[in-house]
């Protein structure tokens, strides 16, 4: 019997996840030219694959990050504002 592919899932608690998203956003804000591939991001924040994919996908969905045609994660030109999900606000 063939193994079923695993579906990505968040591997952090809600509070840990929020803290991680804030940490990643702060790193990008402090280094506006930061451009990372997924493997680079995993090493930079010492994350497992699923956690890193989930975090970066969340920040892309929130329009804080965007992806370049080369697959680099970069800060969006107009990242979200105060009251965003990273600051405890609702979207």
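^ Assign residues to that structure.
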């Amino acid at each position: 019997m063939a193994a079923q592919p695993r579906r990505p899932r968040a591997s952090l608690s809600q509070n840990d996840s929020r803290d991680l998203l804030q940490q990643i956003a702060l790193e990008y804000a402090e280094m506006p030219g930061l451009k990372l591939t997924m493997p680079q991001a995993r090493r930079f924040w010492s994350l497992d694959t699923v956690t890193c994919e989930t975090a970066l996908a969340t920040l892309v969905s929130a329009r804080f990050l965007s992806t370049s045609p080369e697959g680099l994660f970069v800060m969006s030109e107009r990242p979200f504002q105060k009251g965003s999900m990273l600051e405890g606000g609702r979207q």
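The chain has three helices and three strands.
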